[in-house]
């Protein structure tokens, strides 16, 4: 099972999760947020990380820009070209990720919460 952990209180993160669900072709892909019971039982995996987290088969853990890249390539083969971003040094990619994350609440503003449909609920832990 592959699990994406995200900030459920962040509108940008929620928009990304909607995009992931819409484009997902991987039946083993699941989603949860930092406030879920699943996260609390598995939080020893990465304490104090201010990033989305992707866990692949409970062995490989990605954060920051690597998580973003590997989420896309994990959900759908059409996103494999995104792997070319790994040509850039991780420090550069991660700094861009952190800069966007710092201002994410100003970039995407939304007053309402999304309620997943029944078909979307199957992806959530």
From TrEMBL:
It comes from the Bacteria. InterPro entries: DCC1-like, DCC_oxidoreductase. Signal peptide: none annotated. GO terms for molecular function: protein-disulfide reductase activity. This is DUF393 domain-containing protein. It comes from Ornithinibacillus caprae.
